[in-house]
């Protein structure tokens, strides 16, 4: 065989699985048709977090008593910085793989049979194949020439008027960021609430804040058409038309399974996803699939974890996936995070009881924990500044079977947002 | 007896011990001579974090490519906001105690004998006494009329030129904040490095950043005199005099044991501190001492913990202190945090390997873990944005006897700073 493993798609999970195999002296070919390190690094979570960080700082200073601020954002300059920041991450990942001996080919990898993959008219034999081709935005026929995640994050000026179709986490993160950067923002959602993927109290905290920022949230509404002339004209069922400078379409993502040669294999699918077992193995036993293409939730950290599981199994270690504590974050205002699962027993305290949040001029949100009858931690939902940074602690507690008392008796530094986890864990007094 | 317990000093640890006793139906008198909720809330960590947060946002936007910002800080306006923010915390604490039935008297509490405390010419009998009188800044004879933590945090304009005597954590936090707010800052430290209380690589990360910001750090130097006319003139051994608009003295803190009636008891001291055993009990068996007055480290979260221990013991539960994982944070740039203890086995990765830090335009710092030979987590030192929020996870892992592999296999949301803890815990590949 030419290779021990061929990775199709150098996404964040994929390249980490390659690193693991390479460190164990496996011969690995990585095939990537676009940019190394995948959608999240190049076009998704990394640039969006950079944009959100900037918008949050601006909003914080604009609303802080005693500060008189004026600012201009030169998005072209900012994009240069953003691109160089991302290049640093991307090149770091690529150079790490190279330094460990990976062969990297840019092109479209196509599975010929279970032991052969072709790219750029060459065919290579391999013991294992890992598919990590990711996902793409859902596009709606007849609605063309709109913005998706890639385009909105590469934008070179702040739109005066922005219409966002779809109130899921991508849409709502962008709504928050662009509103804080000065855009007039409309969110159109078919369901009766924004962020339908999270618990009601978390989504409500964000809904309340967005409305106080004068974001226009249009629920229970369907977009009928989007026409582009000099500006966009968005027609909505039972609503006046809206003209806009930019229309962002964020109505979900679909797995990338085309052009992959799946027709040459008898690979089982699960809906549009490639079906995998709890070893991340597909129905063809030497082929693994990880990340977005292998099923929801479509999250980079789920892809990392999948990549680790696939690599371990290729290395001969019988490791299985356990998604029981999978954190989920929406980088909004307040930042909302969830991990684990809901149970009948919960405790909740307001952000107003957390001094560190108050020092950041943040007064909205809460800390909530779910627990089993015996006090074992089951899950948590937090709407608070930088709540994403608290998910490691709770997720670790769930994985290790620890109790709320373990968290309560752990000394948390003062003042931190993390003290909220300690305080909400005090259920026995 | 008039009371089950009398608390002298409603510091952050003290009032929490009162809350615990009150929730168990104990009759509690709280005596406070200044403001409820203590030094940290009113004059220390809370206002300083608010100031630091503002200075960090300003600096981040000033140095972010693509942002053109001008700003003015009206410190009088900001102080009003700060005071109202603190009042919210303070009133919340006081109202909680009142709602649980505490009697609160403002005045100087004095111990008459082991079962009697007087205040404002009244004397009350009690079963237990908790001393939580805190600490005050060290003042040097002959150097008068300078600023200490209270004065610098109540300042109503940004000084043009600020001299800070003492390069410990208070001095260095203020040096960073005021430099970012535009002051010309000098730090004078007697030792050969700043932040002598933390590990060398942590203090070096801060030293490097401060120097790149053009903070003037004068090491191995002793202040000979500080004279005040229109401006201050600071004379330093082997150094030119420095004139300054404000001089901040931050050369340590001493426990508040005066005016407390200690002369009426045969209470054992440990240096200047009140000596306590591992139940936070003093040498007089119904008198407890907690927080700064009972020994180093002088940290609010150590006081909370002490307060919990004292209350539990008064409630008849034999709970002992265990400081094995005591987090410590300095809110500088980078923010540095430490918990647990150093061992011979460690792993370290740079902040450059943490994508979330890069999205915040932060490239300096590192993640370091210490572990036992068998992989059990022993400690961590982190120099990274918001590193304080990561200490809960590591401290919990230490307390629960978890291993680095437990942390590595826990799914951390992407992108977060907390992923650095996961990545640095990968020691087995």
Secondary-structure map:
The structure is a homodimer of 429-residue chains.
Chain A: E1 3-8, H1 12-23, E2 28-32, H2 38-43, H3 45-62, E3 67-73, H4 75-99, E4 103-106, E5 110-113, E6 116-119, E7 122-131, E8 135-137, H5 149-153, E9 161-165, H6 169-180, E10 184-188, H7 200-212, E11 216-218, E12 223-228, E13 232-236, E14 239-244, E15 246-249, E16 253-255, E17 269-270, E18 273-274, E19 287-289, H8 300-314, E20 328-330, E21 336-340, E22 345-350, H9 355-359, E23 366-371, E24 377-383, H10 391-399, H11 404-408, H12 419-424
Parallel strand pairs in A: 1-2, 1-7, 2-4, 7-19, 9-10, 9-15, 10-11
Antiparallel strand pairs in A: 5-6, 6-7, 8-16, 12-13, 13-14, 17-18, 20-21, 21-24, 22-23, 23-24
Helix pairs in contact in A: 1-4, 1-8, 3-6
Q: Into which percent range does the helicity of residues of chain A fall?
A: 25-40%
- Low-confidence sequence ranges of chain A: none
By DSSP, the count of extended strands of chain A is: 24
Strand content of chain A: 25-35%
At CATH level 2, the architecture of the largest domain in chain A is 3-Layer(bba) Sandwich
Indicate the CATH topology of the largest domain in chain A: FAD/NAD(P)-binding domain
Give a description of the structure:
Two copies of one chain form a homodimer. With 429 residues, chain A is α/β, with parallel strands linked by helices. Chain A has three domains: 3-137 and 254-314, FAD/NAD(P)-binding domain (3-Layer(bba) Sandwich), CATH 3.50.50.60; 149-251, FAD/NAD(P)-binding domain (3-Layer(bba) Sandwich); 334-424, FAD/NAD-linked reductase, C-terminal dimerisation domain (Enolase-like, domain 1, 2-Layer Sandwich), CATH 3.30.390. The first copy, chain A, has twelve helices and 24 strands. The first copy, chain A, has helices at residues 12-23, 38-43, 45-62, 75-99, 149-153, 169-180, 200-212, 300-314, 355-359, 391-399, 404-408, 419-424; strands at 3-8, 28-32, 67-73, 103-106, 110-113, 116-119, 122-131, 135-137, 161-165, 184-188, 216-218, 223-228, 232-236, 239-244, 246-249, 253-255, 269-270, 273-274, 287-289, 328-330, 336-340, 345-350, 366-371, 377-383. In chain A, strands 1, 2, 4, 5, 6, 7 and 19 form a seven-stranded mixed beta sheet that branches. Chain A has a five-stranded antiparallel beta sheet with strand order 20-21-24-23-22, with helices on both faces. A four-stranded parallel beta sheet of chain A has the order 11-10-9-15, covered by helices on one side. In chain A, a hairpin with a 5-residue loop joins strand 20 and strand 21 (336-340). The model of chain A has no long low-confidence stretch (mean pLDDT 97). At the A-B interface, helix 1, helix 3, strand 3, helix 4 and helix 8 of A face helix 1, helix 3, strand 3, helix 4 and helix 8 of B. Strand 3 of chain A pairs antiparallel with strand 3 of chain B, so a sheet runs across the interface.
């Amino acid at each position: 065989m030419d290779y021990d493993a061929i990775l199709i798609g150098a996404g964040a999970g994929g390249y980490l699985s390659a690193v693991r195999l390479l460190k164990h002296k496996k011969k690995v070919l990585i095939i990537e048709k676009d940019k190394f390190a995948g959608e999240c690094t190049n076009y998704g979570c990394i640039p969006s977090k950079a944009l959100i960080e900037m918008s949050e700082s601006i909003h914080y200073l604009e609303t802080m008593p005693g500060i008189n601020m004026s600012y201009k954002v030169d998005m072209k300059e900012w994009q240069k910085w953003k691109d160089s920041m991302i290049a640093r991450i991307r090149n770091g990942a690529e150079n790490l793989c190279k330094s460990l001996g990976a062969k990297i080919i840019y092109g479209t990898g196509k599975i010929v049979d279970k032991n052969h993959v072709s790219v750029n008219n060459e065919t290579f034999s391999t013991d294992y194949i890992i598919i990590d081709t990711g996902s793409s935005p859902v596009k709606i026929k007849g609605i063309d020439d709109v913005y998706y995640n890639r385009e909105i994050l590469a934008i070179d000026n702040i739109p005066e008027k922005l219409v966002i179709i779809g109130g899921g986490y991508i849409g709502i993160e962008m709504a928050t960021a662009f509103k804080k950067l000065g855009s007039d923002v409309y969110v159109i959602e078919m369901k009766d609430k924004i962020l339908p993927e999270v618990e009601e109290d978390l989504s409500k905290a964000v809904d309340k804040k967005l409305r106080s920022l004068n974001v226009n949230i249009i629920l229970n509404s369907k977009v009928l058409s989007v026409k582009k002339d000099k500006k966009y004209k968005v027609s909505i069922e039972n609503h006046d038309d809206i003209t806009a400078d930019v229309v962002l379409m964020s109505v979900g993502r679909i797995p990338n399974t085309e052009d992959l040669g799946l027709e040459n294999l008898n690979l089982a699918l699960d809906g549009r996803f490639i079906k995998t077992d709890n070893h991340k193995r597909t129905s063809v036993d030497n082929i693994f699939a990880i990340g977005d293409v292998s099923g929801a939730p479509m999250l980079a950290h789920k892809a990392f974890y999948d990549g680790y599981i696939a690599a371990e199994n290729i290395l001969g270690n019988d490791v299985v996936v356990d998604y029981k504590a999978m954190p989920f974050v929406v980088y909004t205002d307040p930042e909302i995070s969830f991990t684990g699962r809901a149970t009948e027993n919960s405790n909740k305290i307001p952000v107003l009881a957390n001094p560190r949040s108050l020092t950041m001029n943040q007064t909205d949100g809460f800390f909530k924990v779910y627990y089993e009858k015996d006090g074992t931690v089951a899950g948590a939902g937090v709407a608070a500044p930088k709540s994403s940074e608290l998910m490691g602690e709770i997720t670790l507690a769930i994985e290790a079977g620890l109790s709320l008392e373990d968290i309560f008796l752990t000394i948390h530094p003062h003042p931190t947002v993390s003290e909220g986890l300690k305080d909400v864990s005090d259920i026995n007094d």
